[in-house]
UniProtKB/TrEMBL annotation:
<comment type="similarity">
    <text>Belongs to the ABC transporter superfamily.</text>
</comment>
<keyword id="KW-0067">ATP-binding</keyword>
<dbReference type="InterPro" id="IPR017871">
    <property type="entry name" value="ABC_transporter-like_CS"/>
</dbReference>
<dbReference type="Pfam" id="PF08352">
    <property type="entry name" value="oligo_HPY"/>
</dbReference>
<dbReference type="InterPro" id="IPR027417">
    <property type="entry name" value="P-loop_NTPase"/>
</dbReference>
<dbReference type="GO" id="GO:0016887">
    <property type="term" value="F:ATP hydrolysis activity"/>
</dbReference>
<dbReference type="InterPro" id="IPR013563">
    <property type="entry name" value="Oligopep_ABC_C"/>
</dbReference>
<dbReference type="GO" id="GO:0015833">
    <property type="term" value="P:peptide transport"/>
</dbReference>
<dbReference type="InterPro" id="IPR050319">
    <property type="entry name" value="ABC_transp_ATP-bind"/>
</dbReference>
<protein>
    <submittedName>
        <fullName>Dipeptide ABC transporter ATP-binding protein</fullName>
    </submittedName>
</protein>
<keyword id="KW-0813">Transport</keyword>
<dbReference type="Pfam" id="PF00005">
    <property type="entry name" value="ABC_tran"/>
</dbReference>
<dbReference type="InterPro" id="IPR003593">
    <property type="entry name" value="AAA+_ATPase"/>
</dbReference>
<dbReference type="GO" id="GO:0055085">
    <property type="term" value="P:transmembrane transport"/>
</dbReference>
<feature type="domain" description="ABC transporter">
    <location>
        <begin position="6"/>
        <end position="256"/>
    </location>
</feature>
<dbReference type="InterPro" id="IPR003439">
    <property type="entry name" value="ABC_transporter-like_ATP-bd"/>
</dbReference>
<dbReference type="GO" id="GO:0005524">
    <property type="term" value="F:ATP binding"/>
</dbReference>
Length: 323
């Protein structure tokens, strides 16, 4: 059994921009532009970066919820980019997604039993009695009660709804869960409860997570490794301890300098980035970060830095560091 459950190679997702009366293609949004990473079995890989940098598009296109423009995704030894739609549907029971806004993703007219049962019905699993039993068990697993099965989404708090979102993702016993900002809409006190639940479930069920967040502090404790995205590309990836203690990429350093440190003696210099994130429809040449980088050189303006391992699995795309 291979160590890597998920291998993402050169993933791209471009959206055409159309214009004029004939709807001609006049450009392209490079939402995800050549992203490669792996996730080991049982591991949590955190994926962070500012809003609009391509995190959700990465998560959805690797699950083929949206079709990638290019690239190869291997899941559990199978090249899933080569699967037919039908084969992909069957494969998807092993790879589930949890969304940021559980309310938007739960049908308000269905009670919780119907919502949780649905994946089993779609995949033709179990008798009606077995499905109802599984729904009740799963509610307990995520810290709710079996009597909640007859209630409707609006009768739950935000934190409870996210527990329902997690329960629905777990109904088919998946191996991989892509969690797309699962706690971003929740109060800070509720966030840690949901994060703790996800960690407990991972241990008990042997789950593998791709955990997406825009905030570095959220993924810190749950992630074994963390990847940082900027404008559709990964700029740095390392194990969490290394990334937080010794960030290398100027963008990661800037992001981290904005995170309040729990240790006042470790006060870092606050790095303020100049300007806004450029448009992915018209990304800068060379290193896409060069327009905002305090260390920019001539090379950065013209040559795109490769994403490479500078030692011990610390990946970085920056001309300041050569492998
Ligand atoms: P994130 O999750 O990091 O906030 P997204 O993956 O949602 O970022 O979006 C990345 C970029 O792709 C953004 O510039 C966004 O506007 C663009 N984008 C996302 N979905 C579409 C779409 N369906 N059509 C056109 N552009 C899109
Ligand atoms: Mg997103």
């Amino acid at each position: 059994m291979a160590e890597d459950l998920l291998i993402v190679k050169n993933l791209k997702k471009y959206y055409p921009i159309t214009g004029g009366v004939f709807g001609k293609e006049i450009g392209v949004v490079k939402a995800v532009d050549d992203v490669s990473f792996t996730v080991k079995r049982g591991e949590t890989l955190g994926l962070v970066g500012e809003s609009g940098c391509g995190k959700s598009t990465t998560g959805r296109s690797l699950l083929r919820l949206i079709e990638p423009t290019a690239g190869e995704v291997t899941f559990d030894g199978v090249n899933i980019t080569a699967l037919t739609a039908d084969e992909m549907r069957r494969m998807r029971r092993h790879m589930q997604i949890v969304f940021q806004d559980p309310f938007a993703s739960l049908n308000p007219r269905h009670n919780i039993e119907k919502i949780l049962e649905e994946p089993l019905v779609v995949h033709g699993i179990g008798t009606p009695a077995e499905r109802k039993k599984r729904v009740r068990e799963m509610l307990e697993v995520v810290g709710l009660s079996s009597y909640h099965a007859q209630r409707y989404p609006h009768q739950f708090s935000g934190g409870q709804r996210q527990r329902i979102g997690i329960a629905r993702a777990l109904m088919l016993n998946p191996k991989l869960i892509v969690a797309d900002e699962p706690v971003s809409a929740l109060d800070v006190s509720i966030q840690s409860q949901v994060l703790n639940l996800m960690q407990d479930l991972q241990r008990e069920l042997g789950l593998t997570y791709l955990f997406i967040a825009h905030d570095l502090s959220v993924v810190r404790h749950i992630s074994d490794r963390v990847g940082v995205m900027y404008l559709g590309r990964l700029v740095e990836l390392a194990d969490s301890e290394t990334l937080y203690a010794h960030p290398l990429h100027p963008y990661t350093r800037a992001l981290l300098s904005a995170v309040p440190s729990p240790d006042p003696d470790a006060a870092r210099e606050r790095i303020i980035l100049q300007g806004d994130v450029p448009s992915p429809a018209n990304p800068p040449g060379g290193c896409t970060f060069h327009t905002r980088c305090p260390h920019v050189t001539e090379e950065c303006r013209s040559v795109r830095p490769a994403f490479q391992d500078v030692g011990g699995g610390h990946f970085i795309a920056c001309h300041l560091y050569k492998a």
